Amino acid sequence: MIDFTNKKILLFIPYGKGIYGTAIMTELNKRGAVVFVYDERPSLNTLPRIAYRLLKKRMEVFFISYLKNIIKEIGTRDIDYVFIIRAEVFTPKSMCLMRDTFKKAKFILYLWDSVNYTNTVSIFPFFNKVITFDKRDVSRYNLFFRPLFFIDDYRHISSSVERLIDIVFIGKIHSDRYSFLKEFQLLTHSTGINSFFYLYLQSKLLYYKFKLTNSAFRSTKVSDFHYKMLPSNMAALYLSQSVASLDTQHPAQTGLTMRTIEVLGAKRKLITTNVDVADYDFYNSNNVLIIDRNKPLFDIEFLKTPYIELPENIYEKYSLQGWIDNVFL
């Protein structure tokens, strides 16, 4: 386990001191680090986020101003690590500012979205280490590979909790995900399977966009979706009460989603459309069922067999603690 005593770490992560930012900061603090945590985007509001994504170059002046304010706020340039997760709105010019400011720091980039989604290739040369969760991007861009992690909320789920739900889905709606979920629900409805689905959209504005452009949304109501992320403790509670969790990755990504790793941490079964999961060391066909996202046939017998525990070294590899050790190695 890496010791960070007296190390200063500047962390940029989506949602700043949200679920994952706080968990990473807490673990680094336990190891002796002083951690400064900021959102990797200047605004969480829908319209500015869209503007930064679509007009990255034109919005650059505002982003650099955001970074300068952070530099002023932390009051030190004596930073040992600049650790950026995703880096969707970072540009070469903004990275020059960071490099010129924190001259002795080691720069680490972790991508938990695929490169074609974040459009980050231009900033790779500014980092000492670029790591991705997506195996396909490893070979394309010569990056380091490291899957995502589960936080301790999932580690502490008891195997003795009563299973009130057969299948749970908690996730953001994107791409063809809603079409898939609708078809899966129709498929399982007639079997008597008990399910809980929490469908999250970032805003009602996005809902109305999908309503106009996505045929799967034509018969939906705005109240069919949630517009706040489910708190981590509630997500863990629903997962603890379930036999299995359903997940489907973005069609443009092959990397395993955060939900996949959290299910592993909770020691629950997984139903997924990601065929790449069979190549991971934790894969066991008793615990993981791979289905076709275009034709999601489902075998109810999968829910009836007990979960098979993983070897401790493999389980710990996917913990937040194991992830930090790999990322900062």
What does this structure look like?
Strands 2-1-3-4-5-6 form a 6-stranded parallel β-sheet. Helix 4 (92-101) links the parallel strand 3 and strand 4. It is of the alpha/beta class and 329 residues long. Helix 3 (60-74) runs parallel beside helix 4 (92-101). The chain is 35% helix and 17% strand. The protein is built from 13 helices and 11 strands.
CATH class of the largest domain: Alpha Beta
Low-pLDDT segments, ≥5 res: none
Number of extended strands: 11
List SSEs in N-to-C order.
EHEHHEHEHEHEHEHEHHEHEEHH
So how many helices? 13
Which percent bin holds the helix content? Answer: 25-40%
Strand order of the largest sheet: 2-1-3-4-5-6
CATH topology call of the largest domain = Rossmann fold
N-C termini distance: 10 Å
How many whole angstroms does the radius of gyration measure?
20 Å
Mean pLDDT: 92
Helix/strand class: alpha/beta
Percent strand equals 15-25%
Describe what is shown at a glance.
With 329 residues, this protein is α/β, with parallel strands linked by helices.
Q: What's the topology here?
A:
Elements: E1 8-13, H1 19-30, E2 34-39, H2 46-54, H3 60-74, E3 81-85, H4 92-101, E4 106-111, H5 115-118, E5 129-132, H6 135-141, E6 144-145, H7 152-155, E7 165-172, H8 177-189, E8 195-200, H9 204-213, H10 232-240, E9 242-247, H11 258-266, E10 269-272, E11 288-290, H12 312-317, H13 320-327
Helix pairs in contact: 3-4
